[in-house]
Amino acid sequence: MKDVAQLAGVSVKTVSRVVNGEPGASVEVRERVLQAADRLDYRHNLGASTLRRKDSRSGIVGALLQDVGNSFSAGLLRALEDSLRESGLSVLAASLDEEPERERGMVADLVARRADGLVLMPASHRHEYLISEQRAGLPLVFVDRRPHGVDCDSVTVDNRRGAAMAAAHLIAGGHRRVAMLSDLEEIETAQERTAGYRAALKEAGLEFDPALLVPSVRGEHEASTVVTDLLALPDPPTAFLTGRNILTVGAVRALRSAGLSHQVALVGFDDFPMADLVEPALTVIRQDVQRIGTEVGRLLLERLAGDKSAPKHLVLEPSLICRGSGEIARG
Amino acid sequence: MKDVAQLAGVSVKTVSRVVNGEPGASVEVRERVLQAADRLDYRHNLGASTLRRKDSRSGIVGALLQDVGNSFSAGLLRALEDSLRESGLSVLAASLDEEPERERGMVADLVARRADGLVLMPASHRHEYLISEQRAGLPLVFVDRRPHGVDCDSVTVDNRRGAAMAAAHLIAGGHRRVAMLSDLEEIETAQERTAGYRAALKEAGLEFDPALLVPSVRGEHEASTVVTDLLALPDPPTAFLTGRNILTVGAVRALRSAGLSHQVALVGFDDFPMADLVEPALTVIRQDVQRIGTEVGRLLLERLAGDKSAPKHLVLEPSLICRGSGEIARG
DNA sequence: TGTGCTTACGTCAACGTTGACGTATCGAGA
DNA sequence: TCTCGATACGTCAACGTTGACGTAAGCACA
């Protein structure tokens, strides 16, 4: 900037004015400065600018998600990006992979970067450590999972209700033995989903059979194995509810290799792009990812605009998409 | 920092030393400083630090992709993140949506942020504007598409060969009338894919029928319509090659509603998670997204480590994954 | 006892930018 | 002609941090 000023024959302050489009520079000077800047390949230093300015917005929002590679996190990221773009905010995204340490590390990094806000799909269970950041004015929005130990905005889906809807749907199809495969138990959404499953059983007056609820199923392959094992029971389930995307895939594979995909019902939690092309087409509980991301962005922008009201907790309703696999009746 | 220094009864420089883990601070002083920092909720300001330091690495890498919400960009982002993580680099991701203006804007933003490197899946066709940035020392890695007008590292897939493999595979199945649906013509990868398709036809001594090559198909729905229209021709194609993920989906739908999914062959470009669950299972050309992202990260890190050698152009080979839909013989 | 080295600090300026404020010039109006 | 206000600049310090360098104390060794 000093060089530009010298080449243009003005002071640095004038260069600053021109660069920021402030008034107080004649057309002639403006021209000279811009030419000089161009000649010298001058690039504005946003860091220095942010440092000096009063309000000092960095223009960065941190998005700490479970895994930016999976369709849920990715869709969310995309929707968030869109809703923040027009405010000139950029998104720094990271995958936490359910590792609390990484969460802490990334939060520390983003705080040091003076991020304007944080979107968190937390890997940790207690969030007291965020209190001081929030007190310092950092807008915080939790997504998919609720905050514990810090009172801030959140956007979640009613997982309990979603799972209950799914289970009830299966029960309505005449099924009496409905099995459920669930994600890692320490993940809150997984707990809520199993709770919904159990609630639906109770509601229907069915007895809960612990053998039919398999928690902490880790991946597609394990899901496959679990389903196969359950089918081998003396009194096997006639319907399955899978608590997560990849578990659904594993279940489909197992049912198919057992030749039972048209005999055994299946409802999966989370929709995915080709779900209707599978045979039979998959009935799922869908979360509106787009909507979730948009709401998160909206909350964040409101806070950035100065909204000091009490934390808001949006709970969106999931919906049941019937495509066939969930409508297979018993027997 | 000044406050921390005062509370701990030391100079700011000493606080700096403690914060950065530099030697030259006794255990006792270190303790006092850390306590003071804790009491005052002191947060290190990375921006100021970066500004002052000589090498001034911001620790940010920009990833300008087509759409962080689609599985290709998302997978790439994830792999990139992983390979950069251990070097302490964070990824600022943005979706360009094939809009050159957005590309320019984001590049300008990242340059102003003093990003340590840029990963670009460009929306624009000419990249001369990046020359000055590169000359200024900004490591640049293009991905999925080659640079034009600036000489920098790139990681691409041999799209031409991929499409040729697909077409040849169909031709080997006895097909004489193979149709292709392609993405927007101005996208380089789309051009390469159609070129591969034509090359394979020529190689096999088949005449090219312009009616069977439909370029600039925009989305799933349009793809569906196009396939339906092609099937209504007097001499319809017996096999289809779809140039992109969503076009494949559209084609599957059209074939299915025509009741021809087991009579007409189909090979899609790009694999996707449930491709083997579709009926018939989809034969695809797969790009190893993980590998691409990892290589991009590696190239970037090498440049950051000071590698000044000539730009490298990695061209990865796609692979043909046979699952059924592409092995349907003619007739 | 003097010299030199190490350790543990402190002082000062600078990184690139902008807010606050000062000044010179010019034209309008009394 | 003088004053006033607007316009177009310039000067200076400060944002939070760290590199360069200075210094005082302590210790080892000739």
CATH superfamily membership of the largest domain in chain A: Response regulator
Relative helix content of chain A:
40-55%
Number of strands of chain A: 12
Distance from first to last alpha carbon of chain A: 78 Å
Give the strand order of the largest sheet of chain A, numbering strands 1, 2, ... along the chain. 2-1-3-4-5-11
- Given the helix and strand composition of chain A, which structural class is it? alpha/beta
Number of domains of chain A: 3
Major pleated sheet of chain A = 6 strands, parallel
What does this protein structure show overall?
Two copies of one chain form a homodimer. In chain A, helix 9 links the parallel strand 6 and strand 7 (213-214). In chain A, helix 10 (220-231) packs across helix 11 (245-257). With 331 residues, the first copy, chain A, is α/β, with parallel strands linked by helices. Chain A is elongated and about 90 Å long. In chain A, the strands form two sheets. The first copy, chain A, has a six-stranded parallel beta sheet with strand order 2-1-3-4-5-11, with helices on both faces. Chain A has a six-stranded mixed beta sheet with strand order 7-6-8-9-10-12, sandwiched between helices. The first copy, chain A, is built from twelve helices and twelve strands. In chain A, 42% of the residues lie in helices and 15% in strands. Chain A folds into three domains: 2-44, lambda repressor-like DNA-binding domains (434 Repressor (Amino-terminal Domain), Orthogonal Bundle); 60-158 and 289-316, Response regulator (Rossmann fold), CATH 3.40.50; 159-288, Response regulator (Rossmann fold). At the A-B interface, helix 4, helix 5, strand 2, helix 6 and helix 11 of A face helix 4, helix 5, strand 2, helix 6 and helix 11 of B. Strand 2 (90-95) of chain A pairs antiparallel with strand 2 of chain B, so a sheet runs across the interface. Chain A binds a DNA duplex (30 and 30 nucleotides) through helix 2 and helix 4.
